[in-house]
């Protein structure tokens, strides 16, 4: 599915071809909620990196989060979170460990997205206390990461776009 996205001020516009366009996966980790999720979570989509076209590249900032380790150490995340330096909108995540993929934030997408038949709520162990998580039969909860990938979830629901 062809997706068009932009930041709020309009300095950055982008397009990409998404194999996983359904906004079903809500991440409540501290990085997502502080950098991209004012309501307490952020939603990532899956797209092919070689299809990403960017206008306004000079307005992009890149953030690599520092992640605290259990042993008290700290490492820098390989994931590069791209945002607009003019307005702060979170745009997409690119990780050179998976160079063929790019993960746009659903919040930056202007194209109407398919509605999710089931929603996944993950990294709930990192959730802020004031954030309510939707409950119900189609709301699936994980304390950490789910085992199923974005791609596998889309395939199971018959919503994978392989064009
Ligand atoms: Zn902007
Ligand atoms: Zn997250």
Summarize the SSE layout with pairings.
Blueprint: E1 2-6, E2 13-20, E3 25-27, H1 30-35, E4 42-43, E5 46-48, E6 53-55, E7 60-63, E8 66-68, E9 74-76, E10 80-84, E11 90-94, E12 101-104, E13 119-122, E14 139-141, H2 150-156
Parallel strand pairs: 3-13, 13-14
Antiparallel strand pairs: 1-2, 2-5, 2-6, 3-4, 5-12, 7-10, 8-9, 10-11, 11-12
The structure holds zinc ion (2 copies).
The site of one zinc ion (ZN) has 5 residues, from helix 1.
Describe the structure.
This is GFA family protein. It comes from Luteimonas rhizosphaericola. There is one protein chain. This protein has 163 residues and is mainly β. The chain has one domain: Metal Binding Protein, Guanine Nucleotide Exchange Factor, Chain A, CATH 2.170.150.70. The chain is built from two helices and 14 strands. The protein has helices spanning 30-35, 150-156; strands at 2-6, 13-20, 25-27, 42-43, 46-48, 53-55, 60-63, 66-68, 74-76, 80-84, 90-94, 101-104, 119-122, 139-141. The strands form three sheets. Strands 1, 2, 5, 6, 7, 10, 11 and 12 form an eight-stranded antiparallel beta sheet that branches. The protein has a four-stranded mixed beta sheet with strand order 4-3-13-14, with no helix packed on it. A two-stranded antiparallel ribbon has the order 8-9. A hairpin with a 5-residue loop joins strand 8 (66-68) and strand 9. The longest helix is centred in the C-terminal third of the chain and has 7 residues, at 150-156. The mean pLDDT is 95.
Terminal CA distance reads 8 Å
Indicate the mean pLDDT: 95
Helical stretch tally: 2
**How many beta strands in the DSSP annotation?**
14
Unreliably modeled segments = none
Share of helix, binned: under 10%
Strand content is 25-35%
From the spread of the alpha carbons, the general shape counts as: globular
Radius of gyration: 16 Å
Run of helices and strands:
EEEHEEEEEEEEEEEH
Reported CATH architecture: Beta Complex
Write down the CATH class.
Mainly Beta
Number of domains: 1
Bound molecules: zinc ion
Largest β-sheet summary: 8 strands, antiparallel
Which structural class best describes the helix and strand composition?
mainly beta
């Amino acid at each position: 599915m062809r997706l068009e996205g932009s930041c709020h001020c309009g300095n950055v516009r982008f397009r990409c071809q998404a194999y996983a366009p359904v906004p079903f996966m809500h991440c409540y980790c501290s990085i997502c909620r502080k950098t991209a999720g004012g309501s307490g979570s952020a939603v990532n989509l899956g797209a092919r990196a070689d299809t990403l076209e960017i206008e306004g590249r000079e307005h992009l900032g890149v953030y690599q989060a520092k992640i605290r380790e259990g042993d008290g150490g700290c490492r820098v995340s390989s994931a590069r979170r791209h945002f607009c330096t003019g307005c702060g909108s979170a745009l997409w995540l690119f990780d050179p460990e998976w160079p063929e993929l790019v993960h746009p934030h659903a919040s930056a997408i202007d194209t109407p997205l398919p509605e999710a038949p089931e929603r996944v709520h993950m990294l709930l162990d990192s959730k802020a206390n004031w954030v309510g998580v939707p409950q119900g039969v189609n709301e699936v909860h994980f304390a950490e990461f789910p085992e199923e990938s974005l791609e596998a979830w889309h395939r199971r629901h018959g919503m994978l776009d392989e064009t």
